[in-house]
Request: fold
Amino acid sequence: MTEFAPIAMEVLRNALLTVAEEMGVGLQRSAYSSNIKTRLDFACAIFDADCRNIVQALHIPSLLGAMVTLVPRVVRTYGAENLRPGDGIIVNDPHMGGTHLPDITLISPVFHGSELFGYVANMAHHQDVGGMAPGSVPGDSTEIHQEGLIIPPTRLLEGGRIRQDILDLILANVRSPRERAGDYRAQVACNNLGMRRLGEVIERYGAENLGLYMEEVLSYTERRMRAAIRAFPSGTYRAEDRLDSDGVTGRPVRVAAEVTIDGDEATVDLSASDGQGPGPVNATFGPTLSAVSYVFKCLGDPDIPVNDGMYRPLRIVAPEGAVVNARPPAAVAGCWEVAQRVCDVLVRALSGVLPGKVCAAGKGIICNISFGGFRDDGSPWTFYETIGGGYGARPTKDGIDGVQYHLTNTQNAPVEEIELSYPVLVERYELIPDTEGAGRFRGGLGMRRDYRFLGPATFSVQSDRARFSPWGLFGGLDAAPSRYIVNPDAGEPLVLTSKSTVRVEAGDVVSVQTPGGGGYGSPLERDPEKVLRDVVDGKISMKRAELTYGMALGPSPREVDRGATERLRRRLKRAEGGGPT
Reply:
């Protein structure tokens, strides 16, 4: 290799990455549903002929490991020798390496002449794929067959054309088929764009030369990930956390991790976690791999490219039948809630040796919200979104208010779009005061979103953190938990569990209130001026400022009394220690 090889490798890597990113733009602009076109709940990637991930655009972290596990298994099952130019394989089976049923993947082979060069693929979350509840993420499913249509590897495209019989079969099993059909066509357009652009890259640089550099990209990424892990202190670190329930029995679900750093390799042993449960709170291996790889990329080196080389130094022990690697016919609609908890547990395990890099626990939930019904003309409608919340406080900064957390960076579904498209009014959409975990640096605030239904509908929540709050670190306090309430202002509101499917009538309001983020460091060490600013901004109450942060106001309501604050904090510290006040 010449001295210019590293530059050439970076040019070619970014050329391929641009193809994946442009695929995402095409998918977004072609899609019908708000979940894909507005919230950007999708990912696009390129694989080589051996089904190794070469590049994946950073669309959504939750799909990092999902496509890596799914695409090779699908190609092996279907048989690469059975694929022809213009073919496209569709699949959503979680137990083949996927996630939950609404995440539907389209895989297209890319040929150079008569030779198979590789594959382009996209995975997108559809707002409905059938099943017992609109949105296909029921809170009380007990087997995967209740959650929607299972699509094994199936040839949707043949000779570049959609097989109408296959599409008709799928659409016959989903709600709002017109919107769903538009999203499937958008996925087809996405892969067609990827094949064209990848073909242009091949023509420009040559298939053989490009193949050599793709190999080097994988090796380069592996070296960088190993170097990042080598910088971690060697040793074994443990932590555990719980999910509210399995969705059926009400029993909490334990997620436990033992992280061993040995030189330039890391082993994450999740075998002490609970076994798969009877409800929808189970994950297949794909979401678990996404969680583990995401944490090590963040704590190791966020600039490491995303490809097969990133995973090579990571070893995951997740026995089949565990809640983190469920066997069929387990229900898995809540797989991402499990994966979020895996993230929290890994961060907690490493917090003692990487205190300057980790954050306290954030909202800890994906917070799947879905609902649907029938319009006055009898046509079905469905809607799905996830709701943000508080991010955990960081070593030198507050947590962020009202954002997505860890495995998801999907965007907000605008109120205007919801109300124009569905018989629903969003009556409240706001940050919730006093939901932060107090600390030297406070956690972010949770969010409240209230939906008023204009007609009968079925409402599902597949979420968590209603029983076990996001935790703080190093003296930081826990954040407020989540709440899900039907008719919150009524005399007798109905408080839902974090995994529920209920019938609502015209005029009913469902309030979704997400957790805040945990605090970092003692709240009695927080800069009083920052406490005052939060009071003035309406983020915390004056009562909380006094009793939790020990901040006293001066003669002006916008002025801190430094002397009184010091005396108040001394009293609070003595009270915490059990001494005289």
Remarks:
- The first helix runs from residue 5 to 30.
- The CA atoms of residues 139 and 500 lie 4 Å apart.
